[in-house]
C-alpha cells in the first residue's frame, strides 16, 4: 500500500499530542521503548514519530504514533525547536493510518497481547470484521479468523491493572479471557493475589480454578471465600514469605475442594514414611488415585552402580 507521506523537520510546538491512536492507553513504563532517553541523546531519533497534517488553527499536526519517542526527544533536547517526523497528508484514509500504526510497531518490536487487542479495536471502528481478519491478522501472527478478533478485543474490557499485567506478560491472554467470567471484584482480588504471592502462570491458573470451583460449590463470591479466617491466617502469616503463602493457600483450597483426595494423600504419605525407605528412593501414586498402581523410583550414583544392582533388581521383580 503506497501512502502519500514525507519525512520532514517541523516545529515541536506545532504537534498536538493525542491518545486517539495509542496502543497503550494505560500507564506503562517507557524503559523498554526502542529509543530511550540515552539512545536519543547519543544518536537522535532513528525511528521518527508519525504525524498527520491537520487543519487546526492552533496546531498543524496530530501525533499518530511515537508518543514515547516524541516525549524522550523533548526531554533530551529541551532547547531544540524542530523534530524530524514522517508526515501523512490530510486525505489519508483510516486504513492507511492503521497500516502505518502496524508497520511502525513492527519496526520497533513485536506487539504485546494487549497492543494487538487495542489495535484490532481501532481497526473494527473503520473496517468490517472480515476485512480486519484478512488484512491485519496475518502480520500479527494470528489466524485470519473473525473469532480471533473478538477474543482479543474482549481483553480491552478488563480493568487497567489487569491490562497492564497482560501487556507486561505477568498474566497470560488465556487466563485474562477466563477472568472475564468472574465479577470485577473477584477478578481484581485474584489478580492482586497473583502479584502479591508472586505466582507464575501455572499457579495462577490453579488458584483461579480452585477459587472459582470452591466458591461455586459454596454459593459464594471469591472475595467472600478468601475473606474467611483460615485464608486470612495464611495471607497475614508473619513467618512465611510470599511464595510459601501461595503454596499454603493452594494446598488449603485443594483440601477444601477435594477432602477425600486430601485424606487419601495424607494416609498414603504416612504409609510411605513408615517404610523408612533410603533417601535415594521415592514412591508415587497414580494421579488422583485413579489406579492402584504404585511407582517406586530409585536413584543411582551412575551407570556403573546401576549395572552392579541389575541382577538383584531382576531377582526382586521376578
Q: What is the share of helical residues?
A: 40-55%
Order of helices and strands: EEHEEHEHHHHHHHHHHHHEEH
Helix-strand makeup class: alpha/beta
Number of domains: 3
Q: How would you name the CATH homologous superfamily of the largest domain?
A: Conserved hypothetical protein from pyrococcus furiosus pfu- 392566-001, ParB domain
Strand order of the largest sheet: 1-5-3-4-2
Determine the mean pLDDT: 89
Straight-line distance between termini: 74 Å
Radius of gyration: 28 Å
Q: How would a crystallographer describe the biggest sheet?
A: 5 strands, mixed
Discrete helix count? 15
Which topology of the largest domain does CATH recognise? Conserved hypothetical protein from pyrococcus furiosus pfu- 392566-001, ParB domain
Catalogue the unreliable spans.
29-34
Shape, per Cα inertia axes: elongated
Say how many strands there are: 7
The CATH architecture classification of the largest domain is Alpha-Beta Complex
CATH class of the largest domain: Alpha Beta
The share of residues in extended strands comes to: 5-15%
Description:
The termini are far apart. It is elongated and about 90 Å long. Helix 10 runs parallel beside helix 13 and helix 13 (about 240-255) crosses helix 14 (about 260-275). With about 325 residues, the chain is of the alpha/beta class. It has helices spanning about 35-45, 65-75, 95-110, 115-125, 130-135, 145-155, 160-170, 175-180, 185-195, 200-215, 220-225, 230-235, 240-255, 260-275, 305-315, and strands spanning about 5-10, 15, 50-55, 60-65, 80-90, 280-285, 295-300. It is built from 15 helices and 7 strands. The chain folds into 3 domains: about 5-110, Conserved hypothetical protein from pyrococcus furiosus pfu- 392566-001, ParB domain (Alpha-Beta Complex), CATH 3.90.1530.10; about 180-255, no CATH class; about 275-315, no CATH class. The strands form 2 sheets. It has a 5-stranded mixed sheet with strand order 1-5-3-4-2. It has a two-stranded antiparallel sheet with strand order 6-7.
Amino acid at each position: 500500500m503506497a501512502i502519500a507521506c514525507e519525512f520532514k523537520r517541523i516545529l515541536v510546538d506545532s504537534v498536538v499530542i493525542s491518545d486517539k491512536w495509542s496502543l497503550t492507553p494505560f500507564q506503562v513504563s517507557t524503559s523498554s521503548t526502542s529509543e530511550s532517553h540515552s539512545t536519543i541523546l547519543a544518536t537522535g531519533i532513528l525511528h521518527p514519530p508519525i504525524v498527520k497534517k491537520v487543519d487546526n488553527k492552533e496546531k498543524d499536526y496530530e501525533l499518530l504514533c511515537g508518543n514515547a519517542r516524541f516525549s524522550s526527544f523533548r526531554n533530551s533536547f529541551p532547547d531544540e525547536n524542530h523534530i524530524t517526523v514522517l508526515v501523512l497528508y490530510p486525505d489519508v484514509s483510516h486504513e492507511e493510518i492503521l497500516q502505518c500504526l502496524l508497520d511502525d510497531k513492527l519496526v520497533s518490536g513485536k506487539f504485546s497481547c494487549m497492543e494487538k487487542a487495542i489495535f484490532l479495536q481501532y481497526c473494527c471502528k473503520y473496517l468490517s470484521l472480515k476485512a480486519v481478519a484478512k488484512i491485519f491478522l496475518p502480520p500479527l501472527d494470528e489466524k485470519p479468523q473473525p473469532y480471533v478478533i473478538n477474543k482479543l478485543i474482549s481483553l480491552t474490557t478488563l480493568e487497567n491493572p489487569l491490562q497492564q499485567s497482560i501487556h507486561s506478560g505477568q498474566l497470560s491472554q488465556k487466563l485474562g479471557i477466563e477472568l472475564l467470567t468472574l465479577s470485577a471484584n473477584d477478578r481484581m482480588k485474584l489478580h492482586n493475589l497473583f502479584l502479591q504471592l508472586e505466582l507464575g502462570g501455572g499457579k495462577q491458573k490453579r488458584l483461579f480454578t480452585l477459587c472459582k470451583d470452591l466458591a461455586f460449590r459454596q454459593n459464594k463470591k471469591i472475595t467472600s471465600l478468601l475473606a474467611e479466617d483460615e485464608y486470612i491466617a495464611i495471607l497475614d502469616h508473619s513467618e512465611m514469605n510470599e511464595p510459601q503463602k501461595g503454596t499454603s493457600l493452594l494446598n488449603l483450597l485443594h483440601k477444601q475442594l477435594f477432602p477425600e483426595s486430601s485424606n487419601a494423600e495424607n494416609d498414603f504419605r504416612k504409609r510411605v514414611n513408615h517404610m523408612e525407605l533410603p533417601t535415594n528412593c521415592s514412591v508415587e501414586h497414580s494421579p488422583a488415585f485413579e489406579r492402584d498402581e504404585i511407582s517406586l523410583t530409585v536413584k543411582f550414583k551412575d551407570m556403573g552402580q546401576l549395572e552392579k544392582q541389575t541382577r538383584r533388581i531382576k531377582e526382586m521383580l521376578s
